[in-house]
Amino acid sequence: MRCTFCEKDAVLRLRHANLRLCPEHLVSRVEKEVEKAIRKFRMFVPEEKILVAVSGGKDSLGLWQILTKLGYRADGLYLDLGISGYSQRSREYAESFARDRGLRLFVVRVEDEVGAGLDEITEVLRGSPCSHCGTIKRYIMNRVAWEGGYAALATGHNLDDEAATLLGNTLRWDLAYLARQYPVLPEGRKLVRKVKPLIYLSEREMVAYCLIEGIRYIYEECPHSRGARSLFLKDILNRLEDESPSTKITFLKSFLRVHKIFPKAPEEELRDCPSCGMPTGAEGLCRFCRIKERMRERAPA
Ligand code: SF4
Ligand code: ZN
Ligand code: ZN
Fold first, then answer.
1. Residue 301 — very low, low, confident or very high, per pLDDT cuts 50/70/90?
2. Is residue 137, in this structure, part of any structural domain at all?
3. What is the span of the domain harbouring residue 207?
4. Looking at the domain assignment, is residue 1 inside a domain?
5. Domain CATH for 257
6. Is the pLDDT of residue 300 over 70?
7. Helical H runs in 79-185?
8. Is 222 close to ligand 1, i.e. is its CB under 6 Å away?
9. Would you say residue 165 lies in a domain?
10. Which secondary structure element, helix H or strand E, spans residue 154, and what is its range?
11. What is the Å distance from ligand 2's center to 30 Cα?
12. Which ligand is nearest to the CA of 119?
């Protein structure tokens, strides 16, 4: 199988884009697609400082590599969630990536912030680990980005992630979530802009990109993701894609074209949390401080 653009052998066939790519042309396509998304959605400009949320996985480390190669000023943030075994291993990948390339990586331990890691938090507060994790991640990442003067926080959500989220939101016709699902969420009071520069790139492209670029990343998924609904939705989309290539990209791009028809919820009135000073829509303590307080009291929910 020959590359669509040159005489070399192709290493990846992308049926949805009707392309066969050699390593060199695959790298150049991936980087171009990221630059295209950044410009189209006006995510950020080269003068702005970006913080990349890195998990040690292929998407976030690949994204960090792409942004630095494209000349953006990007630092990394690794959040050590305190998930037994998994957090230590994923942290090593994030740290060695940064060390090898002389990049700046912030490491924040949830245990230092909350007094316990996610395993213990879930044991004490019950409920789903992902729901506590979501609150904690959103809060700490935003706070670190805001305190560090970063213009935007970039995450490694790829085409497969976004299409699965879109399918989930559509199956429920969740208008509020559909209105919020966009590659850029603008900044607000003490809230840093959130951007997803990988939205046009599939998981397969990111895997191939990391292999070619020599990026070592953690293969295993977070143990709490097993059985997650998002994996089931991804599987359904993969089956559709097998039958009809370009299902995912068409689904996502068509949605983004009509996105403005989804009514935006009225701006939530934000106030400063009396404990940490970060913005919250809740009366009293923000959700993060409430977790902290409940952990201090060690009271079940
Ligand atoms: Fe957090 Fe793991 Fe759940 Fe993802 S799967 S939200 S990392 S606990
Ligand atoms: Zn080629
Ligand atoms: Zn707070």
1. very low
2. yes
3. 31-216+228-265
4. no
5. 3.40.50.620
6. no
7. 86-101, 110-114, 118-125, 129-147, 159-171, 175-180
8. yes
9. yes
10. strand 152-154
11. 13
12. 1
Does residue 82 line the site of ligand 1, with CB under 6 A? Answer: no
| Ligand having the closest approach to the CA of 282 | 3
Alpha helices in the chain (DSSP H): 23-40, 58-69, 86-101, 110-114, 118-125, 129-147, 159-171, 175-180, 203-213, 229-243, 247-258, 287-297
pLDDT in tens, 86-138: 999 999 999 999 999 999 999 999 999 999 999 999 999 998 999 999 999 99
Global pTM reads 0.95
How far does residue 201's CA lie from ligand 2's centre (Å)?
18
Q: Ligand 1 within 6 A of 19 CB?
A: no
Q: Is 23 in the pocket of ligand 1 (CB under 6 A)?
A: no
Question: What angle (nearest 5°) sits at the alpha carbon of residue 278, between those of residues 46 and 114?
Answer: 105
The residue whose C-alpha atom lies closest to atom 3 belonging to ligand 1 is 130
Give the Å distance between the CA of 205 and the centre of ligand 2. Answer: 15
Asked whether residue 125 is domain-assigned, the answer is yes
193-195/184-185 β-pairing: antiparallel
Q: Which ligand is nearest to the CA of 24?
A: 2
Number of domains in the chain: 1
The candidate with the shortest Cα–Cα distance to 192, out of 85, 11, 51, 33, is 51
Is the CB of 225 inside a 6 Å radius of any atom of ligand 1? Answer: yes
